[in-house]
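Colleagues,

For the teaching module next term, I've prepared a clean inverse folding example: a structure given as tokens, and then the sequence designed for it. I'd like students to try predicting residues themselves before seeing the answer, so please don't circulate the second half yet.
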């Protein structure tokens, strides 16, 4: 049994800081996605390291020995991290103090915790992340040419067509990689060039597709028609992007998020070179999308609405755009119409 599944009382001495941290992380695992739960664990591991550095060993000291000032120690230590990581880790640590108060494990002055964080945390900037936009343009051009190349193996042709459709989808919709991998054929409205997805925070959202991404998807699905027909599953329930590696055989198996990341890494390696691996990730396409919308439209609100950046503070300063404005802005930005 892995440590993450051990009973807290068996793994840590009851009443210690480590014991309380593990109880908190168990509640996070029950309520949040696996990825978020892992981020919170990483954050609390870093928090524990800071406590150790202040001679407050979490596995030896009682939870009652945890001072409110520890959040200030943590904030100072996080200056070595990126602003995004700092913000995530402080949110996780603040949640730990909320948990301690809610469970009545210790008395906590929660307003003071928030004040200590505000006083020491860096203010989030509004500059876009840096990424190799020109390299993504080159990658898209090369994957487009590869999709039209002659191949002897049918599975290789399917992979080439799939990857072109997958890359265009990431670049022209702003979808996160797990959202793209979770798409079903029935999710797409082929007339409106839209799809409804369940995104971050379990929120339903409308995604708009470019004409080139839809055409690439249609080319891929046309080549996959025989496999889809033999699957015995209604077409609307089949994954939009499927695996075509030897392990998948002739069955239509959905791509996982890990598969999506691996596809991007491998195509970057083969089409651009080893030096670009890691510089272009699935999330780079999301930055590419937002930047393209911003540079073309000059409309920050439009870009944030299309990318579904609900938590960016600047979004709250602008009036809500109607669906018609979003449709028009998307077509102008992505397709020049």
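(Answer key — instructors only)
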């Amino acid at each position: 049994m892995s440590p993450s599944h051990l009973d807290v009382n068996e793994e840590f001495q009851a009443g210690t800081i480590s014991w309380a941290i593990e109880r908190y992380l168990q509640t996070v695992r029950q309520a949040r996605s696996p990825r978020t739960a892992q981020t919170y664990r990483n954050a609390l591991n870093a928090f524990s390291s800071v406590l150790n550095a202040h001679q407050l060993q979490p596995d030896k000291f009682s939870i009652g020995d945890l001072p409110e000032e520890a959040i200030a120690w943590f904030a100072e230590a996080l200056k070595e991290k990126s602003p995004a990581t700092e913000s995530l880790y402080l949110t996780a640590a603040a949640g730990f103090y909320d948990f301690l108060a809610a469970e009545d494990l210790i008395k906590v002055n929660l307003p003071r915790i928030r004040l200590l964080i505000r006083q020491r945390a860096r203010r989030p900037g509004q500059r876009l992340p840096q990424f190799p936009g020109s390299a993504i343009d080159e990658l898209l051009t090369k994957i487009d040419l590869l999709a039209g190349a002659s191949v002897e193996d049918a599975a290789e042709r399917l992979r080439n067509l799939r990857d072109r459709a997958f890359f265009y989808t990431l670049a022209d919709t702003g979808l996160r990689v797990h959202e793209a991998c979770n798409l079903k054929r029935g999710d797409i409205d082929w007339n409106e060039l839209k799809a409804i997805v369940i995104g971050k925070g379990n929120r339903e959202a409308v995604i708009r597709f470019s004409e080139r991404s839809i055409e690439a998807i249609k080319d891929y699905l046309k080549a996959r028609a025989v496999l889809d027909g033999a699957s015995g599953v209604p077409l609307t329930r089949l994954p939009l992007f499927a695996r075509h590696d030897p392990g998948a055989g002739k069955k239509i198996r959905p791509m996982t998020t890990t598969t999506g990341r691996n596809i991007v890494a491998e195509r970057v390696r083969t089409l651009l070179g080893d030096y670009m691996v890691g510089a272009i990730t699935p999330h780079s396409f999301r930055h590419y999308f937002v930047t393209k919308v911003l540079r073309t439209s000059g409309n920050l609100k439009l870009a944030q609405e299309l990318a579904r950046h609900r938590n960016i503070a600047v979004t709250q300063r602008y009036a809500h755009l109607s669906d018609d404005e979003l449709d028009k802005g998307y077509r102008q930005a992505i397709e020049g119409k």
